[in-house]
């Protein structure tokens, strides 16, 4: 990946990746690779490289000035919503 671009897996039951696994990967990125306070944006999309994409796309653009608490609250809301529709 180019500098300061990080990746987390997209949820895909066919590949054994649950929504919880994906959210845990994002949390781990914020703990180990880059603080959420230094994150300009999050783009969540189901790209499969050259092979196409997954149809259920979620895209999120987080403001540059987001506070850690606000970001965590937003991730919790997304997590709850994913569990509700799963």
UniProtKB/TrEMBL annotation:
Please name the SUPFAM superfamilies in this protein's record. Answer: PLP-dependent transferases
What Gene3D superfamilies does the record tag this protein with?
Answer: Type I PLP-dependent aspartate aminotransferase-like (Major domain)
- InterPro entries named in the record: PyrdxlP-dep_Trfase, PyrdxlP-dep_Trfase_major
What protein am I looking at? Aminotransferase class I/classII domain-containing protein
Species name: Halomonas halmophila
């Amino acid at each position: 990946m180019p500098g300061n671009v990080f990746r987390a897996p997209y949820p895909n039951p066919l590949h054994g990746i649950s929504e919880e696994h994906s959210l845990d990967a994002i949390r781990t990125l914020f703990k180990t690779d880059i603080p959420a306070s230094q994150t300009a944006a999050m783009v969540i999309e189901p790209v499969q490289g050259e092979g196409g994409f997954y149809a259920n796309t979620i895209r999120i653009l987080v403001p540059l000035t987001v506070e850690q608490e606000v970001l965590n609250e937003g991730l919790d809301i997304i997590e709850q919503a994913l569990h509700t529709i799963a």
